[in-house]
Write a sequence for this structure.
C-alpha cells in the first residue's frame, strides 16, 4: 500500500500534468508549453519528486512484480536485444525491400548493429539506462534530476549535422545519429496531439534508418478500453514513416516499439491500406476529450491521471 509520502509525490506529478493541460486550453498548447519550460521551480520540483518516486517507491515495488516485463526498462532492453543483438531487423529490412520493389523505390542501408547502441532517452529524469553496457546513452529532460542527464526540450531542440552540448544543456542534436529513442510516459505529459506528433517527427529525424522508437504510455484500464486511440497512434506514426514491430498491453501501460522504415513511403503504404473510416491522424489521450467549459473539468482530468498512475510500481520516467 502506498505511503502518505508516496501519495504526496504522485499527487504533485498529476497536478502538474493537469495544470499544463488547463493552461493549454486557455492560451494554446504552444504558449502553454513555452511557459511551462520556463517555470524552473515547478520543473525542478517535478524532477526531484519523479526521481524519488522511481528510486525509492516504484523501483522497489517493481522488483516484486511477477511479470518479466514489469518495468519499461526491462521491456525496452528486451526489445533492443531482440531487434539489434539477435538481428531481427534483417527480417523487417527484407519486408521493406519487398514493398519497395512494388513501389519502385531505391533503398540505401548499412548493417545496423554496433556495440554500444546509441540511445536517446527523452524525459529520462535520472538516466536508468546507464546501467546497461549495451547502450551509449544520452539522457535528456526539461530539468535533469542529476548530472547523468542533460537539459533538453525535444520539441524545441535544433536538429542539424552535429550534436552540441554546453554546460549540461543540449544546444543541438545530430540528425540520423541514434539507434534507439525512448519516450517513456512523455507523450501524455505534452499537452496536445499536434505537439506529440511534433515530438515523434523529431524522433524520426534523429533516428538512423531502421532505428527504433520505444513508446510507453500509462493506461490502467483493460486492453480494449483505449484501443481506438492506440490504433490512431499506430496510423499516425505510420504516416510519419514508422512501422510498429512490437505492442504489448501490460497492467498499467501500453508498450510499443516502432521502426523507422528504410523509406517513408513503405510505412505510408501500410497506413493507406489499413486506414479505417474512424482512424484519425492524431495522437490523443483520454484527457483531451474532457470538455474544459465544465466546472468539474479539473477533477475529471485528475481522475483520469489517477487511473493512469494507480498502483504504478514501475513508473520510472
Amino acid at each position: 500500500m502506498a505511503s502518505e509520502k508516496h501519495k504526496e509525490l504522485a499527487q504533485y506529478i498529476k497536478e502538474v500534468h493537469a495544470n499544463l493541460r488547463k493552461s493549454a486550453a486557455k492560451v494554446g498548447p504552444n504558449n502553454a508549453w513555452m511557459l511551462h519550460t520556463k517555470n524552473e521551480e515547478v520543473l525542478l520540483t517535478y524532477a526531484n519528486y519523479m526521481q524519488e518516486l522511481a528510486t525509492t517507491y516504484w523501483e522497489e515495488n517493481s522488483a516484486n512484480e511477477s511479470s518479466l516485463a514489469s518495468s519499461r526498462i526491462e521491456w525496452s532492453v528486451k526489445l533492443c536485444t531482440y531487434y539489434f543483438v539477435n538481428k531481427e531487423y534483417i527480417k523487417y529490412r527484407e519486408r521493406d525491400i519487398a514493398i519497395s520493389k512494388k513501389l519502385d523505390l531505391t533503398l540505401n542501408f548499412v548493417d545496423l548493429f554496433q556495440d554500444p547502441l546509441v540511445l536517446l532517452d527523452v524525459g529520462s529524469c535520472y538516466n536508468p539506462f546507464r546501467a546497461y553496457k549495451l547502450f551509449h546513452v544520452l539522457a535528456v529532460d526539461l530539468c535533469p534530476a542529476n548530472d547523468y542527464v542533460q537539459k533538453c526540450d525535444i520539441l524545441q531542440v535544433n536538429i542539424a549535422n552535429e550534436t552540441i552540448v554546453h554546460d549540461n544543456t543540449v544546444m543541438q542534436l545530430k540528425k540520423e545519429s541514434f539507434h534507439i529513442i525512448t519516450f517513456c510516459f512523455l507523450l501524455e505529459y505534452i499537452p496536445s496531439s499536434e505537439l506529440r506528433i511534433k515530438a515523434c517527427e523529431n524522433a524520426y529525424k534523429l533516428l538512423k534508418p531502421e532505428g527504433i522508437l520505444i513508446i510507453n504510455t500509462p493506461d490502467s484500464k483493460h486492453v480494449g478500453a483505449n484501443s481506438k486511440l492506440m490504433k490512431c497512434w499506430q496510423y499516425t506514426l505510420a504516416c510519419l514513416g514508422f512501422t510498429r514491430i512490437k505492442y504489448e498491453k501490460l497492467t498499467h501501460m501500453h508498450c510499443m516499439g516502432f521502426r523507422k522504415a528504410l523509406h517513408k513511403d513503405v510505412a505510408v503504404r501500410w497506413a493507406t491500406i489499413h486506414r479505417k473510416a474512424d482512424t484519425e491522424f492524431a495522437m490523443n489521450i483520454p484527457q483531451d476529450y474532457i470538455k474544459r467549459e465544465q466546472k468539474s473539468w479539473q477533477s475529471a482530468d485528475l481522475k483520469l491521471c489517477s487511473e493512469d498512475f494507480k498502483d504504478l510500481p514501475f513508473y520510472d520516467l
